[in-house]
Each structure stands twice: as C-alpha cells, then as structure tokens.
Amino acid sequence: MLCQSHTLVKNEKDRITFYPLRCRCWHCPECHGARTARLIDEAKQGKPNIFITLTSRRRPNWTPDYAARRLASAWRLIRAEYL
C-alpha cells in the first residue's frame, strides 16, 4: 500500500471526518521519521519490555527469498498472538 493511498472515513450525524492512512513502512519517506521518533520515545519510556529473536535454520531447498517470506509470516503470527 502506498502511503496515504487509503483513507478512513468517520461519518457522524453532522459531519464527516477523513483520516489519511499511512503505510507505516520503514522505507517510506513519509512514515520513516515518525516511526523512528516513536521507537526512540518508546525506548526512552521503557515500553519495549520484551525482546524476541527470530532465526531461520538453513535448508538446502529453501531460497533466501522463500526463507525471508516464511520469517515475515512467522513474525506476523507472533505479533498477532502475543503483542
């Protein structure tokens, strides 16, 4: 998703409010600064109170791209379940 290519619309009785949605990608020039600032702020407040390391065992039949996709999928599952 491109940054701000989607919009959330809040429809109330007397007004409509639009909120542009950010992609929240680290490589996005629009989101990178805000994400960095938020991460630094959370670290200063001691909010990241857990540390998770994901590793991928080398398998002869897995390409680096396939291993990366599996790792990304595993991370999404962990975030949904535990964070």
Question: What can you tell me about this protein's structure?
Answer:
By secondary structure, this protein is α+β, with helices and mostly antiparallel strands. Helix content is 39%, strand content 14%. It has a two-stranded antiparallel ribbon with strand order 1-2. It is extended, with a radius of gyration of 18 Å. The chain starts with 5 loop residues before the first strand and ends with a helix. The model has no long low-confidence stretch (mean pLDDT 86).
Short account of what is shown:
By secondary structure, the protein is an alpha+beta fold.
Key words describing this protein structure:
2 strands; 83 residues; extended; 2 helices; alpha+beta
The parts where pLDDT drops under 50 for at least 5 residues are none
Q: What is the global morphology?
A: extended
Q: How is the biggest beta sheet arranged? A: 2 strands, antiparallel
Question: Which range best describes the helical content: under 10%, 10-25%, 25-40%, 40-55%, 55-70% or over 70%?
Answer: 25-40%
Assembly classification: single chain
Strand order of the largest sheet: 1-2
Total count of domains = 2
| N→C terminal distance | 23 Å
**Class by alpha and beta content:** alpha+beta
> Could you tell me the mean pLDDT?
86
Number of helices: 2
Order of SSEs: EEHH
| Rg measurement, Å | 18 Å
Strand content: 5-15%
Can you count the beta strands?
2
